[in-house]
Amino acid sequence: MSVRRFLAVGTAQRWLTAAALLLALAMIVGLVTVVVRVAAGFFWPHPLVELVLADGTRLLGEESGRDVDPAVAGATRVRIKVGNRELSGADFVWVREVEVKERSEPRDAWLLERREYGTFYGTPRRLEGPRSAVDATAPGFAAALAKAIDEAAGRFDEERALLARADRLHAPVARLQARFNAATVAGRDTTALKAELDAARAREQEALAPLLERLAGLRAALAEGALVIATAGGEEKAIPVSGIVRAVAPNGLSTPAKLAVYLARWWEFLAGAPRESNTEGGIFPAIFGTALMVLLMTVAVVPLGVVTAVYLNEYARDNAFTAAVRLALANLAGVPSIVFGAFGLAFFVYTVGGGIDRLFFADTLPTPTFGTGGILWASLTLALLTVPVVVVATEEGLQSVPQAVRDGARALGATRWQTLRRVVLPYAAPGILTGAILAVARGAGEVAPLMLTGVVKLAPSLALDGTAPFLHLDRKFMHLGFHIYDVGFQSPNVEAAKPMVYATVLVLLVLVVLLNVTAIVLRTRLRRRLKRAVV
Amino acid sequence: MSAPRPALEAVNLVAGFAGQEVLRGIDLAVPARRITALIGPSGCGKSTLLRCFNRMNDHLAGFFRRGRLNASGRDVYDPAWSLEELRFTVGMVFQKPNPFPMSIRDNVLFGPSLAGVHDRAALDTTLESSLRHANLWDEVKDRLDASALDMSGGQQQRLCIARALASSPDILLLDEPASALDPIATVRLEETVRELADVVTVLLVTHNLQQAARVAHRTAFLYLGELIEEGETTAMFATPRERLTEEYITGRFG
Hints:
Strand content of chain A: 5-15%
CATH architecture of the largest domain in chain A: Orthogonal Bundle
Largest sheet of chain A: 6 strands, antiparallel
CATH topology of the largest domain in chain A: MetI-like fold
Number of helices of chain A: 15
Number of helices of chain B: 11
Distance between the termini of chain B: 41 Å
CATH class of chain B: Alpha Beta
CATH superfamily of chain B: P-loop containing nucleotide triphosphate hydrolases
CATH architecture of chain B: 3-Layer(aba) Sandwich
Largest interface: A-B, 23 and 35 residues
Helix content of chain A: 55-70%
Shape of chain A: flat
Helix content of chain B: 25-40%
Number of domains of chain B: 1
Structural class of chain B: alpha/beta
Oligomer: heterodimer
Largest sheet of chain B: 6 strands, mixed
Structural class of chain A: alpha+beta
Order of helices and strands of chain B: EEEHEEHEHHHHHEHEHEEHH
C-alpha cells in the first residue's frame, strides 16, 4: 500500500484521534483518582505504629508515605506522622527502613485530635477529673474519656452562643462609638452623642453582667479535667480535656467502629468550622460562602445576560454595531479574571460601595460598610465575568426556535413582544439553562477576582444568619477555591494540611458536578419535550 | 339586490420580493362560507397570495405590493385596523404543525388570551367548540392539560386549526395543511376542513389536485403569478375553460 493510499484511507488518523481522546481521558481520570484517593483515605483511622530504631529511639505515629532513600541505593525510607508538635517541633520524621529494629501496633496507643497544636500520639495513663481520677487500665476509661470530651464540647457550644449574644448586645454601642469617632474627627459637637454613648454603655454593662458570670463559670468548668498521656519516649504530659476534639485508639477498633470514626470525621469536615488557621476542622463556612456567592451571581447574571441576548437577537438589526457588540462579548470572555477583579474593586467596591457609604452610612465613616470587599461585590464581579457565556448560550437558544412557531404566534395576532414572552422564551429555555450552567460552573471555580472583592481566609460570621436583615450582603465570606489556595500554599504547616487540600478539592468538584448534573437533567427534560414538536 | 359581498378580495394585486414580481395583477373574489382552493405548480405564487390576506408577507425582507386587498369588505392595510386585529379576523394554519410548548388548553386559548378574554366560562365554551369544529374534542377532552407536543402530527395540525378557530375569525387561510401528514391523518384533516365551511370562509392552498377536488367548492388556478381560471370545482375539473388549466389538471406539467 502506498503512503498516499495509507493516508487517504485514514487508519493512522483514526488511531491518532483515538490517542488524543485517550490522553484527555487519562488526564481527567488521573486527576480525579488522585484527589479521591487522598481525600477519601484521609479520614479513615489508620493504624498507629510504634517503631524502635537502631539508636534506641522510640517513635509512635501513622505511616504517611514511603519513597526511595536518596542516601542509600536500593533502600527505602518511611515518613511517620509523629504529631506532638509542641514537644518535637515537627509533625513528620523520615525513618530509614534499615534502621527500624522493631515495629508493633500497640492496642493502647491513642491519638488525640486537639483544638490546638495538632494531633497528639501517646499512651494514656489516667484521666484526672475535678474530684477523682480514672486509670487508663480501668474498664470504664474509654467511656469516661468520651463523656468528658462530650461535656467539654457542650460547654464550648454554650460559650460560643454566649459570645454571640454578647456581640449582639454590643452592636448599638459599636454603632454609637463609630458615630462619636466620626463626629470627633470632623470636629462637630459631641456632647449629646457622648451622653447617648455612655447611656448605651451602661445598658450594655447591665445586660452583660449575668452573661459574664455564666461565662466565667463555663470557663472554670472547661479548665477542669486533664488526660495524662505518655509519649513514645516515656515523657508524660497532661492535656486538658477541653482541648481534645476526638480521642481514638485505632489499633483496637473493629471495622464498624472505624467506619463510625470515619463518618464522624467527614461530618466534622463538611459541617464544622475551621481550626488552626484552617488546616484542621471543617470547611462549612467555605461551602456556604461558595454556594451563596454562586447563587447571588446567578440571580444577577441570568436576567442581565438573557435581556442582552434578547435585544441582540430579536430587536437589533444586523449591522456593524451589533457585530462589534458580539465581538466585544467574545473578547470579554477571554479577559484574564484578575482584570475583572481589579475592575470590581475599583468600580463596585470603591465607587458604588463608597457612594452608598457616603449616602447612607455617612455617620460611621471612615469605617466602611459597603465600601469594602463583600459578598455582594464579589457576586456582581463574577456576574460581569460570566455574562458573555449567558449571552452566547441564550442567543443560540433563541436562534433554535423554529420560524414556524414564531409565525404561528404572529398569525394568531400576537405582537412581537407577546410572541417573544409567551412562545419564544419558553422554547429557548434549554439554551438559557445551558448558559446558566456554564456560568455557574465557571463562577464556582473562579478565585482570583474574589481575592480583590471580598473573600477572606477566615470570616467571623456567615453572610446569612438569624439577625436582621438576615442576608448581610456587605459581609466578607469564605470560598472553597480560596480555601484551597490558602491552606495549600499559605498555611504554616503545608505538609500536615495537604490531605485537607485534597478533601476540599473533592468537595468543590462534587459541588460543581452536582450543580451541573441538576441543570443538565433539567435541560434534557425540557429538550425532550420540545423535540417532539418538530414532526 | 347585488351579489353577496366576497369574504376576501384582491383587486389588481401585484406583489413580490426585492423587486421581483411574484404576483402579476391578480383579481380574485373569495365567496363567504365556502371553501376555495388555490392550485398551481410550485412557485406560481399561491402561498404568497394566501399570505397577502393576513399580511404575513410584511415580515419578510424586501416585500412589496400594489393593488387592493380586502378582508370582510375592509382594506387590510386600513391604518385604523391594527395588524393584530386583522389577524383575529383572518386566521391561518401553516404547512407544518406548529404547536406551542404548552398544554392543549393553553394552545387553543392562545388567541382569546391575547385578546384579553379572562372569563373562565367563556373560555371553556370557546375551548370545547373550537376543538369540536376541529374534530379533536373526543380525542383530547380527557387530557386538556397535557402538553400539546405529545400529540401525533395529525392531531397537532387539527389543534392548530382549533387554535385558529378559537379567535372566531371570519376567514381561515390554510397553507398546504396536509403536506406534512401521513395519508390517514390527511383523510381526517380533509373531513375536518370540509365541515369548516359551516363556520368560516376557507381559502386553501394545496398542491394536491385530488384534495382540491375532494374538499373545495371553488378552485382557482394560478400559473406564473397570474390567475388563469377560477370557478366551481366540479365544473372546472370536468370542463376547464383554459388550455393551461386542462394541461395542469390532466398532469401534463406541474
